[in-house]
Amino acid sequence: MKNLLYGLCLFNSVIHERKKYGALGWNIPYEFNDSDLEVAMLQLSLLIGKGDEVPWKALHYLTGDITYGGRVTDDWDRRCLHALLSRFYSSSALQDDYMYSNDKLYSRLPAAFTFADVKRHVDNELPSVDSPSLFGMTEDAEMTYMENQAKSIMQTILSVQPNFSTHLTTGTAVKTSDEVVLEACDDMLRNVPEVVEDEEAIMNPPSSSSGAQAPKRVFSFQSLMRADPATKVLHKRSKELELPGFLNQRIYQSALVTFLRQEVDRMNRLLETIFKSLTLLHSAVKGEIIMSEELEDVYQSILEQRIPSLWKKVAYESMKPLGAWVSDLCQRVDYLARWCHQVSMYVEIEYKRFMFSTHPNKDGKGKEAVGPAAMDNSYMYKYEHPRSYWLPAFFFPQGFLTAVLQNHARQHTISIDSLHFEFDVQPNPSIDQESQLQDTKFQLNVTDLGFHYLAAPAWSAMSQYLAAPAWSAMSQYLAAPAWSAMSQYLAAPAWSAMSQYLAAPAWSAMSQYLAAPAWSAMSQYLAAPAWSAMSQYLAAPAWSAMSQYLAAPAWSAMSQYLAGPANSGDGILVFGLYLDGARWDTEQGCLQDSRPSHRFSRLPELVLRPSKGDSESSTLMTASVDNCYGCPLYRTSARAGTLSSTGHSTNYVTAIQLPSTQPSDFWVSRGVALLCQLDEV
């Protein structure tokens, strides 16, 4: 009873002090008070006094779900509360050698002790500064706490400083605030795209520097999305282009294409807000228009390097400073633009191929049809979607996951409510080496990674391979007269007769066969000059070189490359996620403790496979699965979010099962989570 009471008091201290670690401690800081401890002590006294056995389930429920848990509103915080409570309320806590922390600084008290002994133990034996191990944390968490304190102090000092001068020192030059803001406005207006897809430039491409006119496009993504919803007919310049039925299914019945259209609309709305506010601010600073309250906020935000409130209303969740946020915005726009380009080019090539097969000479509109032979880059658009998806690029990542499940449900004619995701980490050898995963400043080329069959190294290797002398020799060899003669020889009637003869029952009668006239004919046939030429041909060095060439690793890589995306089946690849408080061990294929001074690390590419099963298996309670940790995924490091109009949290995305050699409570106490983006990168 006494040791359980001591453990309860220690537990009460732990849940209070975890708040200093910010989001690592609790997603939401809760106001636990003394009355919670008093009620928990009363419950412990009542339950222990009823019998010799300790009712652990009742203690956990009353303390973890009612007394303290009644204040907890976040499900993941409730899971953390139970993980902490299990260290103090367990049968192991009654053993003499039990330790409350891994560093063995906090131990169980002796069997017989008094209140004076407890006071002496706390004053003399416990450290003056709490060890992070008691909270389930590491030294990196303690460092984060100190950094947050330093930032808070600096922000307080800056907030009380009077604004004596409007001049700012930048390098060796002294600029006024207005000059700094105007320079920042010009830079953003110059570098940030105005829209995701410039339809006019796509449909009417400008001439190159040499004066050559680029071929005009038939489709853009926006024109595809403006198709009549009933007939799926494109209306463009008073002409109608009806897509083949299979394209209607691949495009207009795809939940991912619908999701892409919604993301493009959200991004265009954000870009419009940015350009409109920056243009007005530029005029207001010059005195051409009145500076409104909203423009004043944009002005101050640029000086303080934070995202203006006007932009936040229509923007995605982010805690980056303004400079990093703008760079991230440009990457997101580029990724969405490439996806739009991929969809429209896929439709265009398939449409031209369809028209060429049905109208070999004309496309049905009086124009010359473009056949597959003229489409040199058709291999680049074999698929309408990316190879791998940059999940952090989306405004609404939950909608993306739902779209993947919806496509799977439609394809297999099953209920979407019966589906959940299975997860598999598959490191990409080119970007997921141990050193690259630890370096959070390592810049991923998100466009090439998402659309690697457009500019991947494997394609470059294949191009060199096709240009190699051995390939040229093989091509000439296949075109040689001897090969043609051999082909005719194999198709000759005599060879056919011999083939039938070898399969005939007479072959088993060897004596009759050897004396048969047909054998004599075959012998003469094998001795013919053409057979001799073929034998020499197969033994020639060029044939040997070709055989080695086809067996080379580069040919194998090319074969895989031409096969398209690596995520075969119904699974999808996602990338760009970060681990907070842990790292991924590429050798063992599981979670491991983060290295010193490396709180964050990147997670390798992740495969998400829709699977049919109990819908509850996709909830956060799957965190208790053996050898796996149910890791929550958040958009930002703030973790806490609010319930949006869509019914989803503005921050929490989903739970991802990650293999682990440690029990789940180990990572829960550490506050390990996945993030879509970091604050400073």
Automatic annotation (TrEMBL):
MF terms in GO: dynein intermediate chain binding; dynein light intermediate chain binding
GO BP: any one term: microtubule-based movement
* Domain Dynein heavy chain AAA lid as annotated: residue spans: 2-141
List the GO terms this entry assigns under cellular component, sorted alphabetically.
Answer: dynein complex
Pfam families for the chain: AAA_lid_11 (PF18198), Dynein_C (PF18199)
Dynein heavy chain C-terminal domain mapped to chain residues: 148-434, 568-676
InterPro entries registered for this protein in UniProt: AAA_lid_11, AAA_lid_11_sf, DHC, Dynein_C, Dynein_C_barrel
Name of protein: DNAH14
Q: Which organism is it from?
A: Bugula neritina (Brown bryozoan)
Q: What is the lineage of its organism?
A: Eukaryota, Metazoa, Spiralia, Lophotrochozoa, Bryozoa
